[in-house]
Amino acid sequence: MSTPSAELVPLPAKRRVAQLVMLAFAVVIVMGAYANVGLAIDGRVPSGMLTYGLGLGGFMLAAYLVLAKFAPWADPLILPLVTLVNGLGLVMIYRLEQAKMGGASATNQLVWTGVGVVLFSVTLIVLRDHRALQRLTYTAGAVGLILLVSPLTPFLGKEINGARIWIGIGGASLQPAEFAKLALVVFFAGYLVAKRDVLALAGRRLLFIDLPRARDLGPVLITWGFSLAVLVVQKDLGSSLLIFGTFVAMLYIATQRTSWVLIGILLFVGGAILAGMIFSHVQDRFTVYLHPQDPTLYNKVGGSYQLLQGLFAMGQGGVIGTGLGQGYPDKIPLAFSDFIFPATGEELGLTGLMALLMIYALIVERGLRTSIAARDPFSKLLAGGLSFILAWQVFIIVGGVTNLIPLTGLVTPFMSQGGSALLSNWILIALLVRMSDAARKPPPQAIQDEGMTQVFQR
């Protein structure tokens, strides 16, 4: 019996070596940014730089080893790209902490990053076949709805900054909507795989659009009504927009019908206008969006002060930025959380923000490539839905802080300080990595050798 040819065995090893080099390069970039902050503020390298560097590098090495063992054929770019974004978030939080901004803590964020890597690893180890999630379609839907409405539970839910989207567990707070979005994407994928043929049926043709049958509008109307309920009851515009937008996008992926997208846009815009006319907190968001420079709104509690400070910061940064450690990002309220994007823009400038958006675009692109390469409809929808929800969240955040759309309260994935969003996004990346491994792994091939058939894995 002969050994497999060199083309069949070393390929995953070569890919993993390249991934390790890119991962190390990402950590080096982050450590260079840490050093830059310290040199700009104190004229010396930060004393805790080695601790942060070893911590981040150790966590990512652990994630790499788990990935190499349990998902050797996975896309080699996803983990280094996520490491770079997560690390730059740590740098900005550290910079704000050095500016004595209350609430900013790079140490806490590093700890949450470690917990996120643990959940990433556990997901890869436990979930050997992501297609098993399809059997949990309606269970995932029920779990997602329970998590989404759990902040309304008496004595458990907490209202912070006007939105009731938190639950208190001891002295800690958790935002269950961040985990609900993952469960709901699993539900949407399973449901649409089962019902896509029915939903793709055309009804009447209006101009150049084939409208769906009236009887098939039920799922869209139910999701629309539920998203409006979240907007009205929990005052959570971000989760409402995220859930409904994701469902419509996955519906389009499943049916390839533009009519569903148009119906979804009309429903959400109509619902938002209706909610703005009836409920004051929704109306206030739109008023700030339309008239941010109104002096009465600027000085009003919950007005446009935060938004304009972010816009001023990005304007101050210009094209190349003031330089890390040389701006005033601490002048922006909640710059370590909701407004970390404009805080980054002040010190890295438009150039840095474009580079950051390109990294997000690459992560989404790798997820969409996984969706295209997937061999079964459920995997295609799940990978497409997870990729879209990441891109959609970045768009909602960037659109809000640049006043392209009203502010929603969502946070920038992997960069903003906070445990709930960071943990759920690491689980999202683990699911993409698992599906990428399944999609890129070649099927067994028969090789004839001295009259005997041997089966080797590429």
Helices, strands, pairings?
Blueprint: H1 10-42, H2 49-70, H3 78-98, H4 106-126, H5 137-149, E1 157-160, E2 163-169, E3 172-174, H6 177-199, E4 202-206, E5 209-212, H7 218-233, H8 237-255, H9 258-278, H10 280-290, H11 295-298, H12 305-317, H13 340-373, H14 377-401, H15 419-440, E6 445-449, E7 452-456
Antiparallel strand pairs: 1-2, 2-3, 4-5, 6-7
Helix pairs in contact: 1-2, 1-3, 2-4, 3-4, 3-13, 4-15, 5-6, 6-8, 6-14, 7-8, 7-9, 8-9, 8-14, 9-10, 12-13, 13-14, 13-15, 14-15
Per DSSP, the total helix count is: 15
Number of strands: 7
Which secondary-structure class do the elements indicate?
mainly alpha
- Beta-strand residue percentage: 5-15%
Compute the gyration radius: what is it?
A: 23 Å
Largest sheet: 3 strands, antiparallel
Distance between the ends: 18 Å
Mean pLDDT value:
84
Unreliable runs, pLDDT <50, ≥5 residues?
Answer: 1-10, 446-458
Shape from CA axes? Answer: globular
SSE pattern, N- to C-terminal = HHHHHEEEHEEHHHHHHHHHEE
> Approximately how much helix is present in the residues?
55-70%
Strand order of the largest sheet: 1-2-3
